[in-house]
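thoughts on both lines:
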Amino acid sequence: MRVTKGWLSGCVAATLAAEICLIVAAMWENHRAQISVPASDYLIGLGLTAPLILFAIGMLTAIPAVIVIGLTERFRVRSLLFYVCSAGVTGGLSQILFERSFNRVWLFVLAGGAAGLSYWYVAGRHAGRGHPAGETG
């Protein structure tokens, strides 16, 4: 249950990080083009796109997350740096593989890093605590 909560919190954190970056980028572009857009429009956009992005992140990260979480639980990896980096790499690779470009890879790495931080806080810092002391599997 701890691992599932951690993964879900990571998906939510990645969604929020991606949404914030996209909203800031849209605001910046509108400012540069001298277009006045009410803040409510950005909030409506957030409400419409966040569930879709959350679903996509959940689907794209499920298999890599199972592999990484399984290994970290087995070997009791509790390093914050490991979780942030592995989730960032997963985010970056997913963007490269599915879009076949490096245009916005930084956004996916950032969102993945946020997911790794969230996962570590909820579950990763307790990795392997469910196993008895002498048991390896």
